[in-house]
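Known limitations

Structure tokens in this collection are predictions and should be treated as such. Users comparing against experimental data should check residue numbering before alignment. To illustrate the layout, the record for LytTR family DNA-binding domain-containing protein is reproduced below. The input appears on top and the generated tokens appear beneath it.
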Amino acid sequence: MSFENFCIVSKGSLDFKFQKIKIAIEDIVMLQADSNYTHVYLSDGKRFIFARTIKLFEDMLKDYSFERIHKTFIINCDHLLGYDSKTESLVLSNNLKANLSRRRKYQLKRQLSILN
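Generated tokens:
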């Protein structure tokens, strides 16, 4: 299923057709996969759950500052605060943490100076 039937990306926001929800892309902190569901975490603390795979959201957000850092996590790089070396996870705004895969850690290390 294409995302055009599910959501429209326009003017910096995601407009979900059937749920009548509009989310500003800059407010998205992180997306987390849970089987065929995706949890969307916002900067104001709200969380939405959509019955769509994270791959669909990855395709929608490819033109924005989002990075797939793990098979279950996509983060908004604008909300990135730091790196926790003990848990090997990225620290995001709202005290959210996202696991970082070993393979993507080395890719991101070149892009981001916070990874040691």
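For this record: The helical segments are 54-60, 102-111. Residues 6 and 48 are 15 Å apart (CA to CA). Please report discrepancies through the issue tracker.
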